[in-house]
Amino acid sequence: MSMLYLKYIDSGLPVLIHAILCILAYLVWSVAALLIGPVICLFRTFKFFETSLIKYKRFGTIFSTYDVPFLHETENNRNYIVGLIRVQGEPNITELRKWVLYRLFESKSELDETYKRLSQRIRRRYLSYVWEDEDCFNIKQHMKMFKGATPRTEAEEQKIFENLATEDISRNISPWLFKIIPTANKKSYLIFVKFHHTIGDGFAMVGLLSRLVDKRPEFLNFSKSTRKTNFMANPIKRAITGIITGPLAMLVLVFSFRIKNPFRAKTPPVKKIVSWTPPISLDLVRRIKTKTESTVNDVMMSCLAGAIRRYLSEVRQKKPQDFPIAMTFNARSSSAKLADTIPLGNKSGGLFLSLPVSVENPIERLDITRARLNKLKTLSHPHLFSFLYFSVIGGLPELIGRISTYSINRHASMIVSNVPGPTEPIFILGSPIESIVFTPPLHGDVGMAASVFSYNKKIRVTLMSDKTIVRDLPRLTNFFTQEVQRLEEIILLND
């Protein structure tokens, strides 16, 4: 996050001064609107006629503005969500293909309209992007057996993951892929999954996963008993505070200076590298959060801050400074989260958080992390920024959209996705799924991406970067595991 914006939200300005600054911000944006408003109106008029022509010629389904920003990418760094699922038993590619066909394509009465994009490719028509039906959909193009050497160790599995994550998908088919990877011990097999972010965000992928398993699971934080209690849960209050303070927050963000990013990409990406932690007991994390009156997310982000601190100080011999990240959050309504079928597509927001990497004491670091996250829960800015980025920027000329997308790395050193997973074991064709790891893309050329994913009362953190940025990523995931152990020793074992 930009330091200027961080200072603004932590400033505690007197009400009168804050009010004056908000009025000045309105004046600045009013002048800007007078200058660029006519141009935008002209462009929107053009888009109206363009959309009408695309629909008249039946070129395809026009992209939602929420999906467009994920097309702002380069050939060497495409926006794929990638994951690895371990399933007990030996694979039967024929039966798996039949099952996926039945669950995602043939059960049309149970599926949302958005699932059509799984058999549609991306095409550009005039200045817009559309979903266009594949010439001849064939499940074999999307579900393949891995033809390389059978992995014997987890390190070899990670190497295969990295190679497959770096490979591209043909532009002539829908941008998703399953690769079935047998293992040497034949006790389990792996399913490498790859979905372009335009198909859906992490929460949509969880919904898609629930379509593929034998029985729809319950998800952590998706239960009917979940209720939002913070001030910004009320949409009316959120809208009012956004209208009053939003223009000033946006002005501060626009004029924020470039952050000091220890993981900044200095050359074009070459090859993805991935590392994940061993399973971490969710019960352990919950006991830590109960003792410290925090949340699971507070504990995870605090440990991530500790891991980055140790990596910078011990590996790179640098003085650790607070570390800005962009965190995703689910902007779907409670009813949408609990629906039998979660539509595909992107409906997430993003918030900026400064991890207290400069703080050495783990307890103090957790306290600061909790305080900063609690502060963000009282702000409407994350919702406002997300609305502008997806709803407004996604509808502007592509050049402006790309500038906005690639400005993310000016404000954040890492993108973190925290997605709730199934709370109990899940099965596919009767075989239990042992583990799931995934990672979001390096969107906007951010140097590192991370995911926190819970499954069957275990949590795993997965990190992805490029080998031009970080070569020893396992050191960082090892530090994360050690930070969890440190909190356990300090808070629970020494209690």
| Integer tally of domains | 2
Q: How would a textbook summarize the main sheet?
A: 7 strands, mixed
Residue share in helices? Answer: 40-55%
Mean pLDDT: 87
Shape: globular
Regarding CATH, which class of the largest domain?
A: Alpha Beta
Q: Going by CATH, what is the homologous superfamily of the largest domain?
A: Nonribosomal peptide synthetase, condensation domain
Catalogue the unreliable spans.
222-229
The CATH architecture of the largest domain can be given as 2-Layer Sandwich
Percent of sequence in beta strands: 15-25%
Topology as a string of helices (H) and strands (E): HHEEHEEEHEEHHEEHHEHEHHHHEEEEEH
The assigned structural class equals: alpha+beta
Count of individual helical segments: 14
Return Rg in Å: 23 Å
What is CATH's topology name of the largest domain?
Chloramphenicol Acetyltransferase
Distance between the termini: 36 Å
Number of strands: 16
Family: In the N-terminal section; belongs to the long-chain O-acyltransferase family.
Catalytic activity: a long chain fatty alcohol + a fatty acyl-CoA = a long-chain alcohol wax ester + CoA; an acyl-CoA + a 1,2-diacyl-sn-glycerol = a triacyl-sn-glycerol + CoA
Keywords: Acyltransferase, Membrane, Transferase, Transmembrane, Transmembrane helix
Protein name: Diacylglycerol O-acyltransferase
